[in-house]
UniProtKB/TrEMBL annotation:
Biological-process GO terms, alphabetical: regulation of DNA-templated transcription
Subcellular localization(s) per the UniProt record: Cytoplasm; Nucleus
GO cellular component: cytoplasm; nucleus
InterPro entries cross-referenced by the UniProt entry: CDCA7/CDA7L, Znf-4CXXC_R1
Lineage, top ranks: Eukaryota, Metazoa, Chordata, Craniata, Vertebrata
Protein name: Cell division cycle-associated 7-like protein
Signal is among the record's keywords: no
Compositional bias segments (type: Basic residues): 50-59
Keyword Cell wall biogenesis/degradation part of the UniProt annotation: no
Chain spans, region Disordered: 1-68
Biased composition range(s): Basic and acidic residues: 14-25, 33-49
Protein keywords: Cytoplasm, Isopeptide bond, Nucleus, Phosphoprotein, Transcription, Transcription regulation, Ubl conjugation
Location, primary (coarse class): cytoplasm
C-alpha cells in the first residue's frame, strides 16, 4: 500500500518519458521559418476599443518624469550605445529596461521627447530600434523632436500588438531581411499592403 501512488493524475509529477533522449534529425539547410502573413495582420476586434479609450485618458496628461534634453546627452552616453545584443551588459538592479525586449541592461537607451511617455515606455535599446524600426539610437538621442514608436502608433512589440488585437510577431528580423527589408516595421507594412 505504501508504494502505490495515491494521486496518479497529479500535475507535479514528470510526464511520461521525461528526460529520455531522442535522436533529432540534423538540419541540412537552414531556411527562415514560415509564417502566415494573414495571421500577423489579423485583428481581434474585442481588444481594439480598449486601447482607444486608454489612449484618450493618457494623452491628456503630460509626463511627470524628467526627459533628458539633447544638451544633456554626453559623448559618454553616445559611446555607451549597444549596436549588437552581445554588446549589452545585463544588470537587473542598475540597468534600464528596453520597451521592446524587456531586458534590463546598462547601455544607453532612447529618450522619447513627445511628453506623453511614462517610465520605460519610450526607452528602446540599439539592437531593437535598428532591427524593429530601422532607426539609429545615436541619431534619435540628438533629435529634439523625436517621439518613440509607441507615440507614433507603430510599436510592434508583443504587448502593444496585443492591445491592438493582433498576435505577437516573435523574432522576425531574419525573415524581414530574407524578404529584402532592413527592419521588421517595413516588412509588416509590406505584408499589409500585399493583403489589401
Amino acid at each position: 500500500m505504501g508504494s502505490e501512488r495515491r494521486n496518479p493524475s497529479r500535475k507535479a509529477r514528470p510526464r511520461e518519458n521525461f528526460a529520455v533522449e531522442e535522436k533529432s534529425e540534423p538540419l541540412t539547410s537552414r531556411s527562415p521559418r514560415t509564417i502566415d502573413p494573414r495571421r500577423l495582420m489579423e485583428v481581434d476586434e474585442e481588444h481594439v476599443g480598449e486601447k482607444k479609450k486608454r489612449r484618450k485618458s493618457q494623452s491628456s496628461r503630460k509626463s511627470q518624469y524628467d526627459v533628458r534634453s539633447v544638451e544633456d546627452i554626453t559623448k559618454e552616453d553616445l559611446d555607451n550605445i549597444a549596436y549588437r545584443s552581445k554588446d549589452k551588459i545585463w544588470d537587473k538592479e542598475n540597468g534600464s529596461s528596453c520597451h521592446q525586449c524587456r531586458q534590463k541592461t546598462l547601455d544607453t537607451k532612447t529618450v522619447c521627447r513627445s511628453g506623453f511617455c511614462v517610465g520605460a515606455k519610450g526607452q528602446f535599446c540599439g539592437p531593437c530600434l535598428k532591427n524593429r524600426y530601422g532607426e539609429d539610437v545615436c541619431d534619435v538621442l540628438l533629435d529634439p523632436t523625436w517621439s518613440c514608436p509607441i507615440c507614433r502608433d507603430m510599436c510592434n512589440c508583443s504587448l502593444c500588438r496585443k492591445k491592438d488585437g493582433r498576435c505577437a510577431t516573435g523574432i522576425l528580423v531574419g525573415l524581414a531581411r530574407y524578404n529584402g527589408h532592413d527592419n521588421v516595421h517595413k516588412y509588416l507594412e509590406s505584408i499589409q499592403r500585399d493583403l489589401k
